[in-house]
Design brief:
With 128 residues, this protein is of the alpha+beta class. The protein has helices at residues 46-64, 85-95; strands spanning 2-5, 20-23, 26-32, 72-79, 102-107, 117-124. The protein has a single domain (2-124), classed as RutC-like (60s Ribosomal Protein L30, Chain: A), CATH 3.30.1330. The protein is built from two helices and six strands. The radius of gyration is 14 Å and the shape is globular.
Amino acid sequence: MREAISTPEAPRAIGPYSQAIRANGFVFVSGQVGFDPKTGFIVEGGVTKQTERIMENVKAILEAAGTSLGNVVKTTVFLKSIDDFGKMNEIYGRYFPARPPARSTVEVSRLPRDVGVEIDVIAVAPFL
């Protein structure tokens, strides 16, 4: 079974993709950037504020899928500059205080809307 997940508590998909897909006991959350779902704009404050907004968006999507940040098993972090790793990591770590998921972090040449960070996640989800 494959189910698209959508919530107004996170930025709506602006292309041919879903906020997330629940399939075979997992939730695959599409890459999130620092869009504020209420304003539709990227949050100001650089990578620190963008990471915080991303994690809140991911949290909302996971909750809409019936799971939580505590069930995340894998993340991928894309940074415009690896020099921002420490700023991102400080905020990211607050959302995974115990038994953090596996993670890959890579520097990329460009991200949508010229943001500094994008994060996608995979989480275990209960069968509904």
